[in-house]
Amino acid sequence: MKHYDHAFHAFLKGIILLGFALLMLSLILSGNIVYYIAPKMMPFIYFAMTTFFILGIMQVFRSTKKESTEEHVCSGHCDHDHEIKGPFWLKGLVYSIFILPVLFGFIIPDQMLNSSVAANRGINYGSDLTINQVSPDENSGATSRAEAFLEDPEGYINNLEVQASAAVDAQEHYQVEDFYGEDWFDEFYKEFADELEQSEVILVTEDNYLDVMTVLDLYLDRFVGKEIEMIGFVFREPDFEDHQLVAARFSMTCCTADAGVYGTLVESEEANQFEEDTWVYVNGTIRKGEYGDYTLPVIEDSYITEVEEPDTPYVYPSFNR
Fold first, then answer.
1. How many domains does the chain have?
2. Which of 124, 136, 202, 310 could form a disulfide linkage to 128, CB 3.0–4.6 angstroms apart?
3. Is pLDDT above 90 for 31?
4. Rounded to whole angstroms, what are the CA distances from 274 to 236, 283, 286, 305?
């Protein structure tokens, strides 16, 4: 029976751990870690990277000791061995599960989520508050839902099931509507709406992106005719006309797994000059428009120009920080 080389396997495990640590370090140093992890998760990344470094070095050091055998590892205190059972190809398959992600992480170029992902996940216009969700007037909202149910009970129930299924699929742990009706939520956005209304131009930034989208959903009538400027990547729905595009941003709570797409409909004669995924600066006037069954803010008479991808391509919820 062929002897199981514990030293070799300990060395290989150490190299894998160091590989993961170096991959995280390279992403941090290059700044590309922002494509995958929200800033609030960075302490966990630093902890994991440090832990992998320490454990990797310990494994490599252990593999260099001459007495690195199964008996040394157990020191007679365990009743099982530490071998990977099975033929050579099976052991290779087990290690490949850990080695390939490290290799692909170094080989495949880092890039942000794009319009193809947006098309698959679906895009939320504004902050995704819709006529089917709670309205600022809770009583009128309850009345409209009751009327909808009485008009078409089966359709109403089916619509609720579709919305619930979509929420699960999107894996959005924090959504604006989850907090609607809370006193602090209503007060914050009312004050923020008052502040924006006093501004000559609504400037949408990475820090206030979702807050501005929420205010425009809740108090759209107050901002009709207001000038607005923002940056986003170009996205188009299949049924868009030549003068229409969406200036979109990905919102991330934790990591790319829970990323959602939020966008604002833009209308301009220049819209057809910009390809999807192009980053653009948009300046125009807000009007109340419709798309499908939704009433939403539309930026019209827009000036659009191509810009560089921002250092922080994603936006992050402010209400859970």
1. 2
2. 124
3. no
4. 11, 15, 21, 9
